[in-house]
Amino acid sequence: MILTVDTGIKKDLTAAEMASLDSKLRNRFPKLVGWTYSPLTGELSLDFGEYADEQFVKECESEGRRKRVEFLGAVREWEG
Amino acid sequence: MGRLTPIFTSRKLLNITYQSPSETLLPTPETLPTTEPATPQVGYIVGSGDLPAFGLSVYPKVWVALIFGAGKFVTAGTLSWRMKKNGSSVNTGTASVAANTFYTVNPRFYDIAVGDVLEIALWSNQTDSNYDYKAYQIQASRIIVMGKIRLLCPCNFSGVTPAPVLTQGNPSLSEQWGFYPYHCDTIILLNISSAKTFESLYAKDTYGILRLYYADYNTPNNAQVLTNATYRPRYNRNFVPTQIVCRGLII
Questions:
Q1: Could you report the per-residue pLDDT of B135-156, keeping only the tens digit for each?
Q2: Is the preceding omega at residue B21 within 30 degrees of 0, hence cis?
Q3: CB contact, 8 Å: A57 with chain B?
Q4: Is there a contact between A64 and B121 (Cβ–Cβ < 8 Å)?
Q5: Is position B18 within any domain?
Q6: Hey, which of A17-21, B2-6, B58-62 has the most confident mean pLDDT?
């Protein structure tokens, strides 16, 4: 499952900022497999691999609203 | 005496030939650095000889690049990557890689041109990870076959093939997706992975008559990381048109 949010921030991340973001994301989401962030669009995609849970998606959506990021959607991957 | 204006153009046969993917398998793997390298491991300068060859002069189209970079993690860790175009960051990310597992980064650049420098930097949080494989192929999306004549009746995608076909290393295909035909800039939700004829397609300015899946419809200027205990490269690819037969309707 891949969740994508629009962070509203279009910033080129340094390697140190990537490491910091990686650490925070993996602490918050223990099932996270990987992530991508585009400085061109501000989109952050969180890859949870095979893990897919609708309740978890709703929680992320709700958390996104609190943090004022736009939830763009969830895609279930059929094959990794 | 009047002269009848032909309603249809002559039959147009558009053959598209893709260049073989440029593949490099290093004889000795390079150790991945633990910080971002100043010089990315994977780098290509887009040359005119890398572009697909069109049998007819085709009007606007968008070039996309499918690039692959692969190696192995001995100790479980996190792979970090950065896609750069002409020195500027296009996308960044990380991926978990298990112990004794191969990784393949599948970056896709959208809208590239001859002379562009496309690079992928790789680094690891472990000291015993390596890199030893890279590949690259250019494909075309958003094709408009004729300039002013946009209504094609019929439009026959008579040749369709998966691309690229990687041969070096120990390759393994993960997924391959067909392209989407477009009519009046509206998607026709029919993934094309074999020959298919449409009674008519109208090529408008944004999407033309088709949109490739990877690098355009899905993950433009983005990357996926695939891991596998046995295979490297592990990759996703497009179905691409190799032959289009059509007539234009003069209206």
A1: 999 999 999 999 888 999 999 9
A2: no
A3: no
A4: no
A5: yes
A6: A17-21
**pLDDT tens profile B159-176:** 999 999 999 999 999 999
Residue B236 domain boundaries: 12-248
- Cβ pairs A/B, distance under 8 A: 55
Out of A32, A38, A79, closest to residue B91 by CB: A38
Which residues numbered 144-173 in B keep a CB inside 8 Å of some CB on A?
none
Is B204 part of a structural domain of the chain? yes
CATH class name, domain A2-75: alpha beta
Q: List the structure tokens of B171.
A: 């390759």
Please state the ipTM of this predicted complex.
Answer: 0.87
Q: How many CB atoms within 10 Å of residue B171?
A: 20
Q: What are residue B207's phi and psi, to 5 degrees? A: -110, -10
pLDDT along chain A (80 residues), means of 10: 88 95 93 95 90 76 70 56
